[in-house]
Description:
alpha+beta, single chain, 4 helices, two-stranded antiparallel sheet, about 110 residues
Amino acid sequence: MNINKLIQQRKKLLxxxxxxxxxxxxxxxxxxxxxxxxxxSLIKFCVTYFIPRKTRNSHYTSYGFxxxxxxTEGGFYITNGQFKGAMLISGFKPVNKFCLNSIYCISQKKPxx
Length: 113
């Protein structure tokens, strides 16, 4: 998978899901503030650990998953918005784009939690 190509193809989603009502650090567009290496690492985490499903996974929100990423090997500090942006780029849309802490229809591939 070419992460750079994926980011370029789906970058428009970041602005489509940006409501403009969130404070800094909670907007998916914040994903673009990460370095390319950090973007790639975060996208790899999302596509490695999550698979789509039809029903919502209400056990964790974007805010909880961001902490999971930070505590994995190779993880680093990210904002809630950066995580939400990575999920969009990875193909996972939130159940409700207007929620501050997004919920997704996902299952975990690996027991990262």
